[in-house]
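Review session, final week

We close the course with one last complete record, chosen because it touches almost every idea we covered. It is Ribosomal protein S11, a protein from Sebdenia flabellata with 118 residues. Go through it on your own first, then we will talk.
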Amino acid sequence: MNILHRSIIITILFTSSNILYSVTDLDGKVICWSSVGSKKIKGTKKITLPNLTLTSKLIINCIKNLGYNFLHIRLKGFKKNKKTILKYFKTSTLNILSICDNTPLPHNGCKKRKVRRI
């Protein structure tokens, strides 16, 4: 079968207190999703390394059970755990086709209104 037909997109969103995983096909239809908070983990314990590897392992098992072998990874957000999660996906038996960082960066924005002087 063609590689494009057996590939999948994983979007990983890093928020300030949680990490969201979304698995979609190439058309953008969500196949499965997971987050650290959805596993009944509360507070600052959500960002610890064992919990991150637990949810990554759950997503990888879901992808393997569906029969997909090829990945496109999209990352969004600022966190120090990006590299560790990428290492975890690289050590799995899934083949990574591309890694894209879609972190939105502000570039000074719109011009502010002139201050009124009386």
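Two points worth writing down before the exam:
The first strand starts at residue 7 and ends at 14.
The chain is about 25% helix and 30% strand.
Good luck, everyone.
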